Amino acid sequence: MRSIILTIFSIWSVCPILAQPLFEISIADDLKVQDELHGRLLVMLSVANEGEPRFQINDGPGTQLIFGEDIEHWSSSETHRFSLNSYGYPIEKLSEVPAGQYRVQVLLNKYEYFEKQNGDRLLLPPDQGEGQQWNRKPGNLYSTPQLVEITKNGPTKIAVALDKIIPAIDPPDDSKYVKHVRIRSELLSEFWGRDMFLGAHVLLPEGWDEHPDVHFPLAIMHGHFPYDFGGWRDTPPDENLEPDYSARFDVHGYNKIVQEEQYAFYKEWTGPDFPRVLAVTIQHANPFYDDSYAVNSENLGPYGDAITYELIPHIEETFRGIGEGWSRFVYGGSTGGWEALAVQVMYPTEYGTCYAACPDPIDFRAYCLVNVYEDENAYYLPSTFKKTLRPGHRDYLGNVDATLRDMNLRELAIGSKGRSGQQWDIWEAVYSPLGEDGYPARIWDRKTGKINREVANHWKENYDLTHILRRDWHKHGDDWAGKIHIYCGDMDNYYLNNAVYLAEDVLQTLNNPAYDGEVDYGDRAEHCWNGDHAEPNHISRLRYHSMFIKKWANEDLQKNAPADADVMSWRY
Known about the structure:
The chain is an alpha+beta fold. The chain has eleven helices and 26 strands. The protein folds into three domains: about 150 residues, Immunoglobulin-like (Sandwich), CATH 2.60.40; about 260 residues, Rossmann fold, CATH 3.40.50.1820; about 90 residues, no CATH class. The strands form seven sheets. An eight-stranded mixed beta sheet has the order 13-14-18-15-21-22-25-26, with helices on both faces. Strands 2, 3, 5, 6, 9, 10 and 12 form a seven-stranded antiparallel beta sheet that branches. Helix 4 packs across helix 8 and helix 8 crosses helix 9.
């Protein structure tokens, strides 16, 4: 889950009198292009006295203001007047902004036409190597922040020029241990009507080049878009690194801790006792999000098949993987936790074990705090007279700093039709059927919270992992038994533990065979808890590779591998 609650800055007062800011937006001469521009034009207002407004929009109480409108066929030689009725967050309309001093920044998240195989023609933001981050996407235009005064005495005309462009991202270089793979996917290219690619970062085991006859198991870590192989550093920590402060963990010098853990993993990986496997992280960003959730989808296409039957076999052939289902195991946290369980469920014989930490909702009776099958409204608790908002984010003591409505309305301001590139939108893009307009069908009305029961039923039959396990255990139980491991903190920030409780109840009822897996909880542990009871969250979250590769090789391999499997040649 990508949503991040930021600590905000010193704020000066804003007069509570409504003003009428008229933004006239142009494009600087050196950035003008011949082609027409399409996308989401975003106007951001901030009362913070430092930093860029494009990095100050979040779910928490410190958020600044953002307003968005869709743009089509904009000539870069023309000035665009931004509508006062453009939808915004946390203030709904630009016309409702109080008078006062603000720092203003404007950004155009550029869209392109996608001509899909089914005939739909959609305007979407292609990933540009950054993992669908609208405020960091190469090619997006944005303005230098400027200080403006919005007055109460009639309309305030504000001219803003898009005078900067986010530069392209250089791909990472190969090293002795880390190799980078990029392939054109036939399946995805056919679906999207243009060339579509999958990527991966492959960490080679110590001695890989010295043992040319050995074939290796494949450790697949799922998660958000990785620029390079994360958690790895083959040089000692930077002695001159200026220590920072992690507000999330209340830890000083966390950047140094991260480097120390990365280097410790390098030493462990290359040491004499670490299991010799290929470790892989996958790049599967798409027009809706920084990854695809690794399953087939009506809106995103056959990403599950493309990863399982195109990318993984290519990696195994290139780097001498064993290439059999028992020899592949998957792990990850949050989004990656859901994906680890999902691919084990959807492809029961293609993967040998899954370790799903703090997974996104694996039972839609607890879609965070919403039961999409029984609740009428996602935003409010049932009541005849009272409107009580559902919480969306909490700390380990239960203090709430964002509601579920806040989170959804922020995304609606960033992008219409599911195009924000954010968490709730990607869940819809993955789980929902196609809407009448060709974009993902809404599970609920984004402004009111009213749930669409027909869409919920589609979710249940295709992506509710608990329901699928219970429904299909008689068909695939022999392939799922012993392979399912789930971990979650009982104070997960996004209430993801509620779905895990429901899943555990179902798993314990399964028989012939019994599920023979593991479900574990961290006491007062927040999001990203992964089963480590010995270390605090801010440390254990940095040790996924070490934890789960050793757990598979030393504890779970023998239970699930065939009797004739080669479990020794790669243990040199």
